[in-house]
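Mods, move this if it's the wrong board.
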Amino acid sequence: MQIRYYLRTILDGIVIFLTIVFLMGYAIYQFIGVSMCGTEIRKINSNHAEVDIISHLGSCGATTGFNYKIYLLKKGRNLQIWDENKAFIDTNDSALDIRWMADNKLIVNIKKDSKVYKYQRDIYINNIKYTIILNDKEGI
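Not the wrong board. Structure tokens:
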């Protein structure tokens, strides 16, 4: 009888421990920014010697829309979790038209009715200032 009590106490402790480990792991997984939403990351052909333009498409299901985040990263560098808040444009426009106007000036054309959640005009990479100009145009 006493052995059953100890075995049950040990099993209860193991179950509680595993539940806590699972919940903490899930919380850390969510905290570091790993998204459970569908994502697509691709490099936009930029033909620039110093930087790459990276596009990140996020979609979190039927009740939320798509969002497109555009990043300017040092050439050859992959998008990392800690880059999540470093996008220079976050919009719902899927038809972005991105072009280099000069070596350090980028033009981004979006549809006139697009929502822009974030826009950063100047970005510094390797102490070089890159300027992003956002144009809203009808019927891109």
